[in-house]
Design goal:
The protein is of the alpha/beta class. The protein contains 23 helices and 16 strands. α1 runs antiparallel to α3. It binds phosphoenolpyruvate and magnesium ion.
Length: 581
């Protein structure tokens, strides 16, 4: 038995068989010298792989054509053209003959060359071919080498999945029915992969370096996503101990559910709006069953992931309308497309950037790709006729961005008016405060926004210069750093001065100890993953606002994030001991 520790990101205990993903480095097939008489065999293998890959692509094209139509199936024509490229084929054969190497290495060398050349071309259309080259290259190499690529969706039995990393779009394809839990070697607590695991209620541990070498597919493991432990080959005593712990946690959850229908109100009567963060519209049953009073953050970018086209206005309208209706009369804050950082769209081959979190993303992207932005704004506006919707812009760095976005929004409402389509003319429009410059100029931004929501996941990463997805820096990622508390205080004061309300929708809001601090700092709304809501509600219902204020005032004088956190944990113990994990 071995006990390993990583970063706990999604609570829950599960026991099951491990399934280890070893990433395929598809373009790196090493040189492998072959005797002369092997040359024709390697050429024949290469030609067979071409035929097989072509047949596969024709099959996919046919299926896509039948399912979603011509526009989408045509994408595969580009794949076929690559496979039929005479120069490419001749180059591969020449390398096999001249270098006396195996077909995998020869093909990988040529496709890599194409890949590099196309990546550097300064032509939008040709640049888009890069992803076709990558896809077709991978497919052919898979057929050639016989290494089957296992997709998450292919997993049949319930397993605990282990990989170097899962991207947010891969995580989005997991289902609770098949995935008991997952473990990754890299990643931090506020990476979108981690956030998704909580939303999907899949226990997870990230940042466990070397886990793929420590565990084999088929090993029995216990995953403790609450505390970050992974136990390989557990003995009988450990299994019993964890079974008892699992039961204890289930009892706590059942106990907390009693608060579901009660308001998030302190003992001395201050009401806090307790809302949920969602990524998918089908999370609504969980939102409602965990007692949320609305959606404080709808991360709409997931709508755009894992597909080869962009969602249309009608498609988005139908989904937003459904969410608005189901949550009505409670509000739903729809955050406009927050693309980039660790979330990339499959349908747009955007240039790779050195610093994606500081790059051309979120509102910056939308203000340039107004065509894409308008489709979403029109859909939100139209859906606002069916419930209480609010709009929120991500990654605002200055007031000009808010003004520009609002101009585009106005243009959309005027268009709808002309077209005779209804929408809520008084829809509230808010701004995420997640860049230090926005926090520091929140007095100016408050003049243009109806509300603020503190996106502390990014605010922490940008203020402390700590990459939120880097497990090596997780120790520096401190939500209670005095610098962060000062920024939050300033934002709340600036907003309240102009009678704007302020929410907090970063992951720290789901920590009951920190929630006490946020209440004390006079935050009006707390939004977090549905799973964390019952604990936050319990703590709010167990404190007096004036005591929370005193706690907030006290910690403002502390010098380190650690001291603040220790003090908050101590206070939480006094308020509700059972919430300490
Ligand atoms: C945040 O940055 O705190 C936030 C809520 O948005 P996201 O996690 O999607 O970046
Ligand atoms: Mg953010």
């Amino acid at each position: 038995m071995r006990k390993l520790r990583g970063i706990p990101v999604s609570p829950g205990i599960v026991k099951g068989q491990a399934f280890v993903f070893h990433s395929e480095e598809v373009f790196s097939f090493p040189f492998s010298s072959i005797p002369d008489d092997r040359v024709p065999v390697e050429i024949a293998r290469f030609e067979d792989a071409l035929t097989l890959t072509r047949a596969e692509i024709l099959g996919i094209r046919k299926k896509i054509y039948a399912q979603i139509g011509r526009d989408h199936s045509d994408i595969f024509n580009a794949h076929l053209l690559i496979l039929e490229d005479r120069t490419l084929i001749e180059d591969v054969i020449a390398i096999i003959k001249e270098k006396k190497t195996n077909a995998e290495n020869a093909f990988a060398t040529v496709i890599q060359r194409y890949f590099k050349a196309f990546s550097q071309i300064d032509d939008e259309y040709l640049k888009e071919r890069v992803s076709d080259i990558r896809d077709v290259g991978k497919r052919l190499l898979r057929n050639l080498s016989g290494v089957p690529k296992i997709e998450i969706g292919d997993i049949r039995e319930k397993v605990i999945m282990i990989a170097h990393d899962f991207s947010p779009s891969e995580t989005a394809t997991m289902s609770k029915e098949k995935v008991l839990g997952f473990i990754t070697e890299i990643g931090g607590p506020t990476s979108h992969t981690a956030i998704l695991s909580r939303s999907m209620e899949i226990p997870a541990v990230v940042g466990l370096e070397g886990i793929r070498d420590a565990v084999k597919t088929g090993d029995t493991i216990i995953l403790d996503g609450t505390h970050g432990y992974v136990i390989v080959d557990p003995d009988e005593n450990t299994i019993e101990e964890y079974t008892r712990e699992e039961l204890r946690m289930t009892q706590i959850i059942t106990e907390l559910e009693k608060f579901r229908h009660l308001p998030a109100e302190t003992l001395d009567g201050r009401r806090i709006v307790l809302a949920a963060n969602i990524e998918f519209h089908d999370e609504l049953p969980s939102v409602i069953s965990h007692g949320a009073e609305g959606i404080g953050l709808y991360r709409t970018e997931y709508f755009y992931l894992n597909r080869s086209d962009l969602p249309s206005e009608e498609e988005q309208y139908q989904v937003y309308k459904g969410v608005a209706e189901k949550m009505s009369p409670n509000p739903v804050i729809i955050r406009t497309l927050d693309l980039g950082g660790d979330k990339f769209l499959s349908s747009l081959d955007l240039p790779r950037e050195m610093n994606p979190f500081l790059g051309w993303r979120a509102i910056r992207f939308c203000l340039t790709r107004v065509d894409i932005f308008k489709v979403q704004l029109r859909a939100i506006l139209r859906a606002s006729a069916h419930g209480k919707l609010k709009i929120m812009y991500p990654m605002i760095a200055n007031v000009q961005e808010v003004r520009k976005a609002n101009e585009i929004l106005l243009e959309c409402s005027q268009e709808l008016q002309r077209e005779g389509l209804s929408f809520d003319p008084d829809i509230e429009v808010g701004v995420m405060i997640e860049i230090p410059s926005a926090a520091l100029t929140s007095d100016i931004l408050a003049q243009e926004a109806d509300f603020f929501s503190l996106g502390t996941n990014d605010l922490i990463q940008y203020s402390l210069a700590v990459d939120r997805v880097n497990e090596k820096l997780a120790y520096l990622y401190e939500p209670t750093h005095p610098g962060i508390l000062k920024l939050i205080k300033q934002v709340v004061e600036n907003a309240h001065r102009l009678k704007r309300w302020v929410g907090s929708c970063g992951e720290m809001s789901g920590d009951p100890a920190i929630a006490v601090l946020l209440v004390g700092m006079e935050i009006d709304e707390i939004s977090t993953s549905p799973l964390m809501l019952p604990k936050v509600k319990k703590v709010i219902r167990s404190i007096r606002f004036k005591d929370a204020q005193a706690i907030a005032e006290r910690v403002m004088g502390f010098q380190t994030g650690g001291e603040v956190m220790d003090y908050l944990t101590l206070k939480l113990k006094e308020i509700a001991e059972d919430l300490i994990e």
